[in-house]
Design brief:
Oligomer: single chain
Order of helices and strands: HHHEEHEHHHHHHEHHE
CATH topology of one domain: Fumarate Reductase Cytochrome B subunit
Shape: elongated
Membrane topology: Multi-pass membrane protein
Pfam families: Ni_hydr_CYTB (PF01292)
Family: Belongs to the formate dehydrogenase gamma subunit family.
GO molecular function: electron transfer activity; formate dehydrogenase (NAD+) activity; formate dehydrogenase (quinone) activity; metal ion binding
Structural class: mainly alpha
Strand content: under 5%
Strand order of the largest sheet: 4-3-5
Number of helices: 12
CATH superfamily of one domain: Transmembrane di-heme cytochromes, Chain C
CATH architecture of one domain: Up-down Bundle
Distance between the termini: 127 Å
Number of strands: 5
Protein name: Formate dehydrogenase gamma subunit
């Protein structure tokens, strides 16, 4: 009988110990055992913000086994971003095609005068083309990250796609530095002429000369060019800062901050590309004589009078009306 009582006391003591341990465990640990094979992934996501174990190596970040915010990031990268980028870029291309077919190139109403006036210096053109070239390569290589696998891989195969993607990554990383320098120089060079003023409001009301046939007055940069300037400065700064955060991981923030940086970087980048398509259109086939400003640095006097009349008046007052250079004669056809 005494031995039976001893067994009873031992059993009760063991049961009390089990209860004590159970009470001291966190509620989440009672409900979910991360090592159990029957635990569902959704249960883990609901019960814990992250699942982290212990590791013996110095990098303690490797102990994170499950980071639910990463699922949201992957959904954004593989689904949402592709929709945003596709709609923005293809939508802009469609609008430009429709606009060109309905409006055509904006021609010089008075024809060419045969005289030119300097619009941009050699240094300004160098900075512009350096930044523009880097931007185009960055855009193509960046779009490859988002759209390359579903669109390009099936066309060229695994080996070619792997080789192309590796070189695209190198170009994307290294050309980010001259691009950033270009954005800073553009900001410093043209900040004085890109402060909004009352003239810009009238320019916008008249459609900037792209709608109808009136050419509203403008200084060196009109409202449309000022918008592009600030998009380049602000958008370029945003993609540069977030891009460097991704290039040098864990120096500024943890994995959550890097995920946010990637969301900002990619979203701003695809919208940036869409806006630059419109800028390229106007500077090439959209407006007669516009490309010459960045091509040769000079524009026809009639072009300056029609599109930037206030700026031309300032130039004439500063240098004199007879300082415009005649264009070289061309051989008759």
């Amino acid at each position: 009988m005494a031995s039976f009582g001893r067994y009873v006391r031992l059993a009760l003591g063991a049961w009390a110990f089990v209860l004590l341990v159970a009470v001291s465990m966190p509620a989440a640990a009672q409900q979910v055992n991360p090592t159990a094979s029957s635990v569902k992934e959704q249960q883990l996501l609901q019960e814990l913000s992250r699942i982290q174990g212990r590791v013996s190596i110095p990098d303690q970040r490797s102990g994170v086994l499950e980071q639910p915010a990463g699922r949201d990031w992957r959904e954004f990268r593989n689904v949402t971003l592709r929709w945003v980028g596709g709609v923005a870029i293809l939508g802009m291309l469609a609008l430009l095609v429709v606009f060109y077919l309905s409006r055509g190139m904006v021609r010089l109403q008075g024809g060419r005068s045969g005289r030119t006036v300097e619009r941009f210096s050699a240094f300004e053109r160098f900075v512009h083309w350096m930044t523009a070239t880097c931007f185009i390569i960055l855009a193509v290589s960046g779009l490859n990250i988002t759209f390359g696998r579903p669109l390009l891989l099936p066309l060229i195969g695994f080996e070619a796609f792997s080789e192309w993607s590796q070189w695209a990554k190198y170009a994307h990383n290294y050309l980010s530095f001259p691009f950033t320098i270009g954005v800073v120089l553009i900001f410093l060079m043209w900040i004085g002429g890109n402060i909004p003023n009352k003239v810009d409001i009238q320019w916008l009301k008249q459609g900037g000369g792209m709608v109808g046939h009136d050419h509203p007055p403008a200084y060196r940069f009109n409202a449309g060019q000022k918008a592009v300037y600030w998009i380049v400065v602000i958008g370029g700064s945003a993609v540069a800062v977030t891009g460097y955060q991704l290039m040098f991981p864990f120096y500024v923030s943890g994995i959550e901050g890097m995920q946010l940086a990637q969301v900002v970087h990619s979203t701003v980048a695809v919208l940036f590309v869409a806006v630059m398509l419109a800028h390229i259109y106007i500077g090439t086939i959209g407006m007669e004589g516009a490309f010459e400003a960045m091509g040769t640095g000079t524009v026809d006097v009639n072009w300056a009078k029609e599109h930037h009349s206030l700026w031309f008046e300032e130039q004439s007052a500063r240098t004199g009306p007879n300082d415009a250079q005649p264009q070289p004669a061309t051989a008759a056809e």
